[in-house]
Amino acid sequence: YHEELHLQKVSRVGLMGGTFDPIHSGHLVTAEAARSEFSLDKVIFVPSGQPPHKKGLPISGKEFRYLMTVLATAPNPYFEVSRVELERPGESFAIDTVRYFKDLLNPGSELYFITGADAILEIVTWKEVEELLENCTFIAATRPGFDLNELRYKLLEKLTDKHLKKIIPLEVPAMAISSTDIRNRVKNKGTIKYLLPESVENFIYKNELYRT
Ligand code: ATP
Ligand code: MG
Fold first, then answer.
1. Which pTM value belongs to this model?
2. Where is the Cytidyltransferase-like domain (predicted)?
3. What CATH number should be reported for the domain whose range is 12-177?
4. Which of 45, 73, 95, 125 has the fewest C-beta atoms lying within 10 Å of its C-beta?
5. What are the pLDDT digits (tens) for 96-150?
């Protein structure tokens, strides 16, 4: 699969994977904070095809999720959206995506994988977690007041010290926002204003997403 991303002269790259059903300000604030804190040249949003951990749950069509991600990220010159997981048949695994970008990027580029701290506990159950941690640094977004020691303790049970060093916490202020909450609000005719970009809000209403 080949796609045109703006990655010339880029050496520090963040990957932000997600279902993005819908993308919201929590994702955007986190990506921008990671870009600024870690001096990233680009953050590439990677909407997932079939997320292995959401099997059986109803999720919106991938083109809807892709378009919402494009709408939300378009105003930020540092943000890109990749279709790689949408074009890949079968389940989406982070390790396959990291390998794909290793090949695509300039040699010597550094990869950062941006996730919520809660999701980090799941990565230790992901496919080939050691190879993942050897190929990229994880930025784990936490809400203010989150107990990092407890997280470290839980991770130490599963990972060696060397691998644990590749997970760096980053405190962000918008952590309480979730796609689940936004879908429920739409279903119950509540307001979603300011929880996500207006363009995505309008897209949701225009396409009658999350009403049932
Ligand atoms: P859902 O409620 O459907 O699980 P979500 O809001 O968690 O959706 P995802 O698309 O599942 O969104 O998340 C993609 C990534 O973004 C994950 O790594 C997740 O931990 C992270 N994330 C989700 N919400 C936030 C938030 N408010 N702040 C920072 N990171 C977030
Ligand atoms: Mg989630």
1. 0.94
2. 15-185
3. 3.40.50.620
4. 125
5. 999 999 999 989 999 999 999 878 877 767 778 889 999 999 999 987 777 878 8
